[in-house]
Write a structure and sequence with these properties.
Length: about 325
């Protein structure tokens, strides 16, 4: 049996190059030769030992593009096609899956988190988890998944053109959320603790303005924001997000963190708040992101701030994890 290269997080703080058997062909699945790997905040958390449900050692990587090594049964994917990988492996039979919400499947398994992921030469996944990336580069296709999370949150919110929207957190997920809220016609304000992150995010989104946390001089809507998206993954920010919400508004929690959500009930009720969680993404969200990439609506060159070859991965990941302030999306390229 032939072997392939891998990058393994052996334990918190320790990355290593490794090898593993190449995956074998499997009915209903497609083998994919990995081309590009986006590095996610989850990967950094795994390296730091901050992921609460992860077992080591782990081959990370879930923001993936690659070349199909097998054809799909429905003819949508041919051998050699560039594909985007949906990393959420679902059961297909639970209540969430049956009602069209596989993104919150009760038995979901995320590549690179619950099982080994794509920091390797090849993977084998269900063919329904692959989407043709026609017209995209391998680099851009590796950025579809994280942007789809923001696109899904915006879709969940049912935001309308002209809505004043606040996105709290100007990291990659916040940028993606703000981008797709802007494409839906909303007026965008971003809030963060870092001026440099705000400046960078606002440069990517036409008409967006940035506001620092605790900036008393900031000019904000008197009545509050009609829609607030929290993309911080910070329980303290999540617990006070309702204070920025207009009466009758919608609060969308995009970020997730291990902690207890505590919202003042009188504030919640007097606003007749709609509050929702947004988890992962659906096929239509991936497709929406690719549509806007092809249309030139996504600032892909600004999003991709750092890149390296797979062979440089151990060294570069070890450096990136300690220097995230300047990174939006770092990408490893295989081959």
């Amino acid at each position: 049996m032939t072997v392939m290269k891998t990058i393994v997080c052996v334990k918190p703080g320790t990355l290593a190059s490794g090898t593993a058997p190449r995956p074998q062909a499997k009915s209903g699945h497609i083998r994919v030769a990995i081309r590009s790997i986006g590095i996610c905040g989850t990967d950094y958390h795994i390296m730091e030992g901050l992921h609460p449900f992860l077992q080591y050692p782990r081959v990370m990587g879930h923001e993936l593009s690659g070349t199909a090594l097998d054809a799909s049964s429905n003819g949508d994917i041919a051998v050699g096609d560039l594909v985007v990988v949906n990393p959420y492996i679902t059961c297909g039979t639970c209540h969430a899956c049956r009602i069209g919400k596989p993104n919150c499947c009760t038995s979901i398994s995320v590549l690179g988190v619950h099982g080994d992921g794509g920091m390797c030469d090849q993977i084998c996944v269900p063919e329904t988890n692959l989407y043709p990336a026609t017209g995209l580069t391998a680099r851009d296709a590796a950025m579809v998944e994280f942007l789809a999370i923001g696109a899904h949150a915006v879709s969940r919110s049912r935001i309308q053109a002209g809505t004043q929207a606040l996105i709290v957190g100007a990291g990659p997920i916040g940028i993606g959320t703000a981008l797709f809220a802007s494409l839906a016609g909303a007026e965008i304000t971003l809030r963060d603790t870092s001026q440099s992150r705000l400046d960078r995010a606002c440069a990517m989104i036409k008409g967006a303005k940035g506001v620092l946390v605790n900036d008393a001089s900031a000019r904000l809507p008197v009545d509050g924001f009609e829609t607030v998206f929290d993309a911080t993954g910070n329980i303290h920010a999540m617990n006070v997000a309702i204070n920025d919400l207009a009466h009758g508004g919608t609060l969308v929690l995009v970020g997730v963190v291990k902690g207890e959500l505590c919202i003042d009930d009188p504030e919640f009720h007097k606003r007749e708040t709609t509050m929702m969680g947004s988890r992962n993404a659906l096929k239509e969200d991936f497709e929406k992101v690719m549509f806007h990439m092809r249309a030139g609506d996504v600032p892909v060159d600004l999003l991709n701030t750092h890149e390296a070859s797979f062979d440089q991965g151990v060294e570069q990941l070890s450096a990136w994890v300690h220097n995230r302030e300047d990174i939006v999306k770092a990408i490893l390229h295989v081959g």
